[in-house]
Design goal:
It contains 5 helices and 9 strands. By secondary structure, the protein is an alpha+beta fold. Strands 1, 2, 3, 4, 5, 6, 7, 8 and 9 form a 9-stranded mixed β-sheet that branches. The radius of gyration is 16 Å and the shape is globular.
């Protein structure tokens, strides 16, 4: 059900095609709470990283259950690419990302700009920008900075805010949206 490659066709890639076929054929009604209205009985996340050249297209939740092996792959994919360190990514953040993606009705994968950040990376970024929090939720595996070519920062932020499940930051100048599973709040322009 997961595709995680740097190049070429893999067994997981073929399984991903099967999973996508199953996803299209499966009923998608919502029995979820709050943030996941309309998310359905299958949750899928699609991302790529321009930094590492990796892509991820996976179903990580089926019929009320997270798939632990897939969450581990998401943890690795969302690692700090500068240090290669990874941490357990809070599944609530992945849920917000997936629900927002679905609300926007796009097939394009997210471009992941930043997932987990080790403290050294966060400090380095903080020294270069006032927009980086000292105690960033990125360091706890609870945040992601994302971009879509087919949607504006405003459209992405509106979809994330509609989930009413965490923080949503609009960074229009840098063309990305921050999504996290912290307290519900919004900022930026």
């Amino acid at each position: 059900m997961t595709e995680f490659t740097t190049s070429g066709v893999t067994r997981r890639g073929l399984l991903g095609v099967f999973a996508a076929t199953a996803l299209i054929a499966a009923p998608t009604y919502s029995n979820a709470f709050g943030i996941l209205k309309g998310a359905g009985d299958i949750r899928r996340i699609r991302m790529y990283s321009g930094r590492t050249g990796e892509s991820l297209d996976t179903i990580y939740w089926i019929e009320g259950e997270y798939i632990p092996e897939v969450l581990k792959e998401i943890n690795y994919f969302m690692r700090d690419w500068r240090s290669n360190d990874s941490i357990k990514i809070d599944a609530r953040t992945v849920d917000i990302m997936a629900a927002s993606h679905r609300l926007m009705d796009v097939s394009e994968p997210y471009m992941l700009l930043s997932g987990y950040r080790c403290p050294a990376t966060n400090a380095m970024l903080r020294s270069k920008s006032r927009g980086v929090a000292k105690n960033s939720l990125h360091m706890k595996g609870q945040a992601a900075d994302l971009r879509l070519k087919s949607r504006s920062v405003g459209q992405m932020a509106k979809a994330a805010a509609a989930c009413s499940a965490g923080g949503v930051g609009k960074y229009s100048r840098s063309n990305f949206v921050h999504m996290d599973c912290g307290p519900v709040r919004s900022w930026g322009g």
